[in-house]
Design goal:
TATA-Binding Protein; 4 domains; five-stranded antiparallel beta sheet; four-stranded antiparallel beta sheet; 29% helix; elongated
């Protein structure tokens, strides 16, 4: 459509600049168009902001996002980047604390390293992916506003007696000489259209029949659904709205679920295995789990939360036996049974600080493998926990690191202060497991301090092992209800726009001459059939194909 400068229409209505068809009578305002061509009826010829002549900078931004072509480009780019994000696992899916810079190269070679360097290992949390989603949402909003407002204005201002040129330049047209009384014929024809579900409005010998106008709003309701869907996805970046992590719970232990005020205790882990006679021959002799479940108790912290020097005060919230596909659910928190390990694991030790020269024992303290206290007073000495490694290892630069969150090779680094030591404290690394002391040469690392002091466990009664460890998947997704709401509106809009069509019929009789025009946004065969069927009831039988513009002219 051309941007033209309009004057007041001959019907007296003042149209906005850029309007192609008069908003009131429908007269074509662009006299340079060929008079025998069907009218462009999109938005009934009402001007849109994106068609504004001499746009300012804000209009240019509006024009960019109102373009359907731009919206399609954005959607295609987003789909492609989404697919790239599925080539290798995302960092957020790791159960263990792998170093992604090392993991991708070691697991997938050079392609994995390139994948990580390009930032594709955290595609869905990246700023550029979120920016694409925001741009798609902005495009949906502006595309909708740019079209729905002119459409509403056009449909709300419909005049019953339309300009003759408007009627005769529709795609479905009928023109004939009437011998009957004009008003009686128009009234009778209107009754026939009412039987087909049309709402009929009359103005003397002029008529407007319309049905299924609501279907025109289908695409915009679909857009509302998509916008809600995108907002729900973006809301997942709000702290506390979305979580997909894992928690390891040794049997009988209570652990904190990171990022929440909740604690979880595994009172008893149970696993049942298939007997050999229950397995096929190819699997006989293998331990195949038939059922594994965790008798869990969920707590919330009421006081001393996050205080490493005091035990948290917990209040029980819910008990549940967690099995596969039957999670513990509490106020949006879901705990799924993920895996288990029957290997005994070190849970806690009760070590003693000794004077290595005299053999004197200064005292003992409790040292759980996870969430150990940061400060201990043992005789005349104080031990401040500086670092805690669950699976101690040395990286390529010789610096301490941990390979996982499970206490497979635990190590604790203390700063010890007391008689004969540096007032600022001296570092001391402690390996609770004897094999790790030997493997990593604990005494060599501690140097001269190892000649004075030693932390060790005397007797297995001071060592606590868990018989089993259960792995639970922790999920929180507060955006899910809004995703369903968005999906509902999107489907509703698709149904409205797909299964119903907006149909309109205009006619007027002037000096015994009948002029009829009809328009629909889709399904022209049905539109022609409605017009032809109503004419047949009036005694005029006509082939619907002849109603196409250029057909019967009387």
């Amino acid at each position: 459509m051309l941007n033209i400068k309009n004057t007041k229409c001959e019907c007296g209505h003042q149209n906005a600049v850029g309007t192609v068809l008069c908003e009131s009578c429908g007269k074509p305002l662009n006299e340079t168009e060929k008079s025998n061509e069907p009218l462009e009826m999109r938005y009934d010829g009402v001007a849109r902001r994106s068609q504004k002549k001499n746009p300012n900078p804000i209009d240019r931004v509006w024009n960019f996002f109102s373009s359907v072509k731009i919206a399609i480009y954005l959607i295609v780019i987003t789909l492609v980047t989404s697919m790239l994000g599925t080539i290798y696992p995302q960092e957020s899916s790791f159960i263990n604390n792998f170093n992604p810079a090392v993991y991708y190269e070691e697991s997938y070679g050079l392609p994995g390293k390139i994948y990580y360097l390009l930032g594709l290992s955290h595609t869905y949390e990246s700023w550029w992916f979120i920016t694409l989603l925001v741009m798609i949402g902005t495009s949906l909003v502006i595309c909708s506003l740019d079209r729905v407002l002119p459409l509403y204005r056009a449909l709300n201002k419909q005049q019953i007696r339309k300009h003759l040129d408007f009627i005769l330049r529709q795609k479905t047209v009928y023109k004939a000489k009437l011998d009957a009384d004009a008003e009686e014929w128009v009234e009778a024809y209107g009754k026939q259209l009412k039987r087909k579900g049309y709402k009929v409005h009359r103005d003397g010998t002029a008529l407007l029949a319309e049905k299924n106008r609501f279907s025109r709003w289908g695409p915009y309701i679909n857009h509302i659904g998509l916008i809600l869907f995108l907002l729900a996805i973006l809301a997942r970046s709000i702290p506390g709205w979305q979580m997909d992590s894992y928690v390891t719970v040794p049997d009988g232990d209570t652990v904190h679920i990171t990022g929440t005020p909740y604690y979880l205790k595994s009172e008893k882990f149970t696993v049942e295995f298939y007997e050999d006679d229950e397995l096929p021959d190819s699997l006989k002799g293998q331990n195949r789990a038939k059922l594994f479940k965790t008798s869990a108790v969920l707590y919330t912290c009421t006081s001393n939360c996050g205080d490493p020097l005091q035990e948290p005060v917990l209040e029980e919230l819910k008990r549940h036996e967690i099995i596969v596909n039957e999670p513990l659910v509490y106020k949006g928190l879901k705990l799924y049974q993920f895996d288990f390990d029957l290997t005994p694991r070190l849970n806690a030790v009760h070590p003693t600080l000794f004077n290595k020269e005299t053999g004197e024992a200064y005292g003992s303290f409790d040292l759980p493998m996870k969430e150990a206290a940061l400060h201990h007073e043992v005789g005349p000495y104080t031990l401040d926990l500086v670092a805690n490694y669950m699976e101690f290892a040395l990286d390529s630069n010789g610096k301490p690191t941990t390979l996982s969150r499970d206490p497979i090779a635990p190590a604790f680094v203390f700063s010890i202060k007391g008689p004969g030591l540096d007032p600022e404290g001296e570092p001391y690394i402690y390996f609770p497991m004897q094999k790790d002391k030997v493997r990593f040469a604990q005494d060599v690392i501690n140097g001269k301090l190892a000649e004075k002091l030693e932390i060790r466990v005397d007797g297995m009664e001071n060592v606590n092992f868990s018989e089993a460890t259960t792995f639970l998947n922790v999920r929180i997704d507060k955006a899910v209800p809004y995703l369903w709401i968005g999906a509902f509106f999107s489907m509703l809009g698709l149904l409205m726009g797909s299964y119903w069509q907006h149909r309109r019929i205009w006619l007027r009789v002037d000096d015994g001459e009948l002029a009829l025009g009809a328009y629909t946004n889709k399904n022209w065969y049905g539109m022609r059939a409605d017009v032809a069927a109503a004419l047949k009831q009036m005694g005029t039988e006509i082939d619907p194909k002849l109603l196409d513009n250029g057909g019967n002219k009387g």
